[in-house]
Amino acid sequence: MKSIIWKEFRETVWWALLLALIFTVAQLYPLFFASTYVYAVSSYQGFGMLDSTYLLVTLFGAAGIGLILGFLQILPERNADRWATLLHRPMPPETVLLSKLIAGTGAYVLAVAPAFLLVLYLVLTPGFTAYPSVPEMALAAVANLLGGFLYYLAALATGLAGRVSVMRRLLPLVVAMLGSSWLVEADYFSTAAWGTLFLAVLLGLSAWSALRHAQSPSRSPWMSRAGAVLVGFYAASAVGAFFSTLFVMAMPKTPYVSQRYETLADGAEVIVTRRNNITTAIDHLDGTPYTTDQSQFAKLTESTIGLSRVSSYIGEAHGWKPGQSRRYYRRAYTYLQELASAQVPVPQQWFWIRETRTAIGYELPAKQAIARFTPQGFVPVDDAKPFPEDMKVRGISGEQLLVTGPHLAAVASIVSRKMAVLTDDATQPVYGADDFYIPSSRGKRLFAVAFAGHLSIYEKNGTLLAQLPYTQDVSRWGRVSVGVNADQTRFYVGYNPSRFLPVSERRQMPTFVDQVTQEGEVLTSTRRLPLPKQTSSKPIYRYVLETFESPTYFFGTLLYQKIGGDLGDKRLAKLLRAALGPYWPSTRFKGILLVIASVLLAGLTWWLARRGELDRKAARNWALFVLLTNLPGLVAFWLLANWPPRAPCPSCGRLRRLDQPTCPHCGAGWENLPSHPAEIFDRPQEPNNATPASTS
Predict the structure, then answer these.
(1) Distance of alpha carbon 88 from alpha carbon 382, whole angstroms
(2) H-helix or E-strand spanning residue 154
(3) How many CA atoms lie within 13 A of 694 on its CB side?
(4) Could you report the per-residue pLDDT of 503-529, keeping only the tens digit for each?
(5) Bridge partner residues of 34 (DSSP)
(6) 3-state secondary structure of 420
(7) 279-319, pLDDT tens digit by residue?
(8) How do beta strands 691-692 and 672-673 pair?
């Protein structure tokens, strides 16, 4: 076996080195291009090892390398005698396949690892990038390299396939593409890694099944057959999902109509109706039109008073805590968040490192850290004191940072490196702070801090501008927001239900908006009743598409959410509550449809299997498989079942199996036995009354 491994590795190592060189150049190009930024970078667009171009290079590059190496190991030997020479009697075919797999894995690692390690070393080297280096940002590239190995296994399985249809031959490649989709859509790296490992096992078993099927279709081990069947199932599911998406995109969309309250520049309270994001009406609260001139709609809606949310609740939190935003391991904002940027005195950008809860600034052209921001203000780079868990830092208006804590609210400027404290009174709890812009002021902003009894308005230097009293019960309407008109003569204070209240209760509660002068005099208070939500029925084609999903996946997802919720996963518990609560009628109806469709398709599978003259055990197994997997399982059955070779009976013309001496329909024997695609060593014994076809 060692000699075969060495032989295979020696034949592919030079290809691996050539591919490694090309892959290295391809990875370094986007890295050097991204590292020369002079202006600010965006964590949503990605940078460094999470730059969108770099991820595309590793995703498709690794896939291409896997395909090339896999086909290079199989295709040159398919029609030559070298593969047959290796399969002499003392060497089982599984040993040869395992040797190829070990050598090919080594060649794949040699092709992809050097470029990745070089890029990782450069990114972690101080002074190479103009942003903090977080090692976890390399996980997306690692996942892409793991996904490329799926294509290597798919190439092996495809190349080893014998005389089968093109559609069946391409099933492993479809599963490899499904794996790439899983990598891109997964939230966590662990999810992507386990999914890749699962598909890798299936593709390895599929390659084994293809090898044994070419040797003896009727003697393949059950494990290899199970792997091939599951590959067919996942391939059918992926193709079905792709065409379902295209079908849904091609269908006409249901018009979406929405309504919301707005405060116009003149202080008028109106209801704005939009249809497919286009304003169609602006009405007073009593339903009368504010204006019927549609040419004024865009101008009016662009000049509304924007209200910025200051607090989520005021007073007792009742156990409520802010939820964590959904984080993707392939997005830079999961690890770094840009806070602020400026071009003076030098081009600089500030970042928030989530894991260490520290803020650091970088000079962009020089690509070096210039200072840190701590609870005490701006300090040298070496002072990496983190912010406490109960303090928040976020960037506002480009060049400023807003700091909030249990009793603190402050504004810091990255240009002057000074911090203006708005409030730091241990006797006055701070329930939130935010900035809001002044209309028609070219970006000038004010700052609001929510206290227990009033809302304080500050300028950016810390000067108190106004104190606005609360007019509503903030223990229940504690989600307070604020805005101001262009001449700063009127402030608008909004009251929404507190976040700790149940969603169903909040939806039934009214909201309020007060107009208040700078001196704190309340001019008007408007009560906003809950607007009706649009209700739309699901199109019939949606029910049709959902009917043919896998019931195992549907009910397994509910079970997974149940187990995860019991183990403390709040996200899974929330999904389960939604499925069994507000969406229970839809969940129940979909489950019933899946069960009915699966039972009908399982019956169809049994009939097709018996009609194709499969034995009762095989027909029963396939029917059970389709019962669990629905339409994708039926497709896999049609493509992968070991259909016995059949030919028309020379007497009655109906299809009959070649290994049967007499026709089950008319009882006639063979006059000339037709040829069939089975291997010569597996050809069944010819009946005594049959005459073999001439081989001349």
Answers:
(1) 68
(2) helix 139-160
(3) 1
(4) 889 999 999 999 999 999 999 999 999
(5) none
(6) strand
(7) 899 999 988 999 888 888 888 888 888 899 999 999 998 88
(8) parallel
